[in-house]
Amino acid sequence: xxxxxxxxxxxxxxxxxxxxxxxxxxxxxxxxxxxxxxxxxxxxxxxxxxxxxxxxxxxxxxxxxxxxxxxxxxxxxxxxxxxxxxxxxxxxxxxxxxxxxxxxxxxxxxxxxxxxxxxxxxxxxxxx
Length: 128
Prior knowledge:
Blueprint: H1 2-19, H2 24-41, H3 47-89, H4 94-101, H5 104-127
Helix pairs in contact: 1-3, 1-5, 2-3, 3-4
């Protein structure tokens, strides 16, 4: 049962990450950071203009961080729901399932399954 749950959790997490577009936040964060550095290096802007632009960039970075953390928490809801359902319906308690899933082997297996699923999903989507 633990192996099936590992696969289900990995697939659910990858799907949630892709559907919530979590990777888009990295590009947006890099773009905002580049713009902020360009402002700091600017020789034509006054210190007051640089300060105002830096504050805007800081707020944008905080916003991006908040969106990323919020979406990541949402992405974790489905896998956690699968654990709760398995604990409620299965012969093993939620605590025992959680203990089994927190073993180094289960964590490594989830990582491998998630990577393989993501790779396979990308390969299939690219061919379609």
